Amino acid sequence: MLKRLLNLFTSGAKDSSKESSIRNSDGATLIPRDQHSISRKNISPAAIKIIKQLEEAGFAAYLVGGGVRDLLLGNHPKDFDVATNAKPEEVKRIFRSARIVGRRFQIVHVRMGREVIEVTTFRGHHEESSSVRSEDGMLLRDNVYGTLETDAMRRDFTVNALYYTLKDFSVIDYCNGMEDLKQRTLRIIGDPATRYKEDPVRILRALRFAAKLGFNLEPKTAKPIRELSGLLLNVSDARLFEEVLKLFLGGSATATFNLMREYDLLAHLFPGTDIALKAGDEIGANLIEQCMINTDKRIRSDKTVTPAFIYAALLWPALQQQFTLLSSQMTPTQAWAQAAQNVINQQLTRTAVPKRFLIPMREIWDLQQRLPSRLGMRALRTLDHPRFRAAYDFLLMREAAGEALDGLGVWWTNYQTANDEEREQMVKDIGKHGGTKAAGKPRRRRGPRKPKTDAAPGGNE
Ligand code: ATP
Ligand code: MG
């Protein structure tokens, strides 16, 4: 990978984009095959087949987006996107497996074997008649078609607007994306404020790509983010949930979360947590950070991560704050249940959280209350709970974040490997010192401790 990266920066590509690249009459720069590092063998055969078939049917088709960007950076692309002048219906006629999706922007999903390739028709200038905007400038419907050039201008960032053609294997660059790639700069195309207003999700994409690629946000691209991030409220909660997942499941959750805090985005996406962190909940901030570090580690080693665990951590500071607030008015059990419900209700006003994640998230939380109660058969019953593993990982994370829990994590670590006799003894031993400390007791603070485990957000290895 490093070699490929060096290739891009040191081979002919260094100055040659100026020397040997060709400027087209429409303002595009063509970077010939020997001046860039994309090799056809790294492109998904499905994407190649689709491009070829579109070309055979008389259409133009290019590889675009993250696939081109990541190949140029020597990274492994997550997926491949194709841009074409064929209209969605025309694409559908060529590929039997094609499905038109999306209302705001029509996209065609073409399935080839196990892969799904997104095929989009060149977008046109949206000043034209058939695009519909809201009062805030958000594009509500936009299926105006155009040329390769207008398509490039309509993409989000310059490094995402590079096209690769199989005709002569060159890269076509309308927005100086190649130079930004070399400078490791994330620059939005066009007027930043207008582009964020058209689609506020671009704000999240800016932070996600900056974090994932380790790029600097170009100052004009960064400037309007704080002021405009409130527009995220206009985005549908389902789309926001999907985008939030992408923020944390792309392998750079830690860097992304730090950028989100820097740009004050939590206020819009996780308002309860934002309030708790701004009130100085350091343990809560440590816990989230710990969760992000573990998530990134797990993704790097191809382990599963579950959104329920990530959400459990992201909303934990809000839960703690609510719980403290309600504890003076009701029993700990009632306060816990009410606090959890309040936090969930508040969260659902911002991002959707599907039930399949909400339920395990609640279980992870509720088990935090049960883990300290180990007398009699309680420990055994807790161990049997389907969500035990995730809850145990969560407990270790709380301790690593600096919460003082009287060695509860070590106790559970030992309990899992102990035999029946040892388990009985362990329970008797706590009996001597009480052992029913509720999770709901006021938290004692101590300094953060290095985590003992990286077995977090999956919860079931
Ligand atoms: P990755 O797939 O690695 O997350 P990507 O850049 O391919 O990154 P996709 O969401 O797959 O991101 O989108 C493909 C391409 O479509 C982008 O590279 C960009 O050119 C364009 N695009 C996607 N979302 C937007 C948007 N909200 N506004 C403008 N262009 C967009
Ligand atoms: Mg992509």
TrEMBL record:
Residues 329-449 form the Polymerase A arginine-rich C-terminal domain. Its EC number is 2.7.7.19. Residues 440-450 have a biased composition (Basic residues). Residues 423-461 are annotated as: Disordered. It comes from the Bacteria. Belongs to the tRNA nucleotidyltransferase/poly(A) polymerase family. This is Poly(A) polymerase I. The gene is pcnB.
